[in-house]
Amino acid sequence: MLEASASHQRDTVDETSLLLPGSSTPSLGGDSTSSKPWILLVTLLAIGVAATDLGSFLAQPPKTRMYESIVCLRYYERADPSKIQSNGVIPEELCKINAVQDTVAMIFGWQDLWDALPGIFLAVPYGVLADKYGRKWILALGLIGAECSLLWIMFVCYIQLPLVLTWLSSAFLIIGGGPLVIVAIMFTMLSDIVPTEKRTIIFVYVAASALVAELIAPVLSSILMKKGVWLPIILGAVIEGLTILIVLFLPETLHLRNSGPRETPGGKEQHPVQMASEYSSKERSGFKAQIQKLLDTLKVLKRDISLTLVILTFLVNRLGRQSGDLLLRYSSKRYHWTIQKAALLLSIRAGLNLVTLLVLVPVLSMIMIQWFSMSPQRTDLLISRGSVIFTTLGFFVIGFSPTPALLVGGLVIYTLGTGFAAAMRSIAVFMVGGQTSHDIARLSATIAILESLGMLLSGPFLSFIFRWGMKLGDAWLGMPFLLSGMLFFLITVITYTISLRDLNAAQTPPSATEDIPSPVHSP
């Protein structure tokens, strides 16, 4: 269940700190090394993040195979019972037919929608509770809900109930709010305790721990699946259960907030988490007040057309990138691979993402700023344009790839665009006036709303497109990736409508805008 939000985690948290305006990657060595109690807590949180992702991605391939085998058995019981072996198992190669894969795609597509609903509707209430009663208890609740969700799926599959009953697993996510709340609380706890000047690098390290888990889990899962599908699923559930115990041993961070303040334009100093909390606490009582707060949040879209287009790219980005969740089933169906073999693609993707996020994007950003003396605005603009072009090309190559080698090549090209979300967030921050703007919290909330909407719509929509492609024939199995490529082509056009004048004008007082030179359009 949590693996469904892993790409969302990377886009919304991992990458955002890599390209913050005017910042380079900080070093951990600037502070006094005498007493740093926060380091132990950060280490425990990083272990918790890694363990959560390890358990989730460990269970993903066998869960997919289990769904496939159950649907396959039901199909051949009606269509051709002679294909059923004496032990009641259908050979996996017989389960790649359209009738089976269509049902599996439908189950997963609607599951994504149901899983997204609790986080969208309960993120604010649980955020308020976390501000009032403490972070760790809300985090523990979220992990308990996720564990119960996985256990329900295991129960349905074990006694071979109709797979549509797995959708009820989403109801358990009401306990704690699901993946979106879990991720938000984890990084809020980090923000509470990590010194401001070290927050960027710590966020990167914690994000890297999740990617390392994603790198290891599919390989381990593939090995364990040789013994059957239940061993990796049970191990994943045990690891997620151990994460709950880790959280219970964490100290509460609500009252350990880092004293490093941030100065607002009015001269008043505020902690970033306090600013977000104050914003979310305004008008938070009553249904009408919640609707009004939502409308107030979306007012940032009226600021100017360029900012509106930039923010809307996050909706399109989320819709497009969710097609990555189809990679396992797409490769298995297209190349007639076993799920066990296709799972290795997830490790390849994680490894490439790790290199891109921790090496390529930071190094490229540093070279452009330090060697070529480019402004942070120009750097982010060029990186966003390059990233979205790579992503677009990657999707088209994956969608059209007739051979596994070409698919891996498309995957490499696709991951070169991983820095897009970070660059666009940085550009959006510039366009509302920079890090000291009063609109930062509203901007973040608007982006979160649009990304959540993208997650909500993408599951059933991409599932429908995948099923449609199967009906058209093997050559069109990559339809979800081709559609994502077209969506990212639209984003490419949007990035080329943004000029440095837009970014400079956003941070220049109205009286000074007359002095801005003519627009500079980066190639």
From TrEMBL:
Subcellular location: Membrane
Native organism: Glonium stellatum
One Pfam family from the record: MFS_1
GO molecular function: transmembrane transporter activity
Annotated Low complexity bias: 16-33
Keyword field: Membrane, Transmembrane, Transmembrane helix
Positions of the UniProt region annotated as Disordered: 1-33
Membrane topology: Multi-pass membrane protein
Keyword Transmembrane helix tagged: yes
One GO cellular component, as annotated: membrane
Residue stretches spanning the membrane: 38-59, 137-161, 167-190, 202-223, 229-250, 342-369, 381-400, 406-433, 445-469, 475-498
Keyword Lipid metabolism: no
InterPro entries the record matches: MFS, MFS_trans_sf
Protein name: MFS general substrate transporter
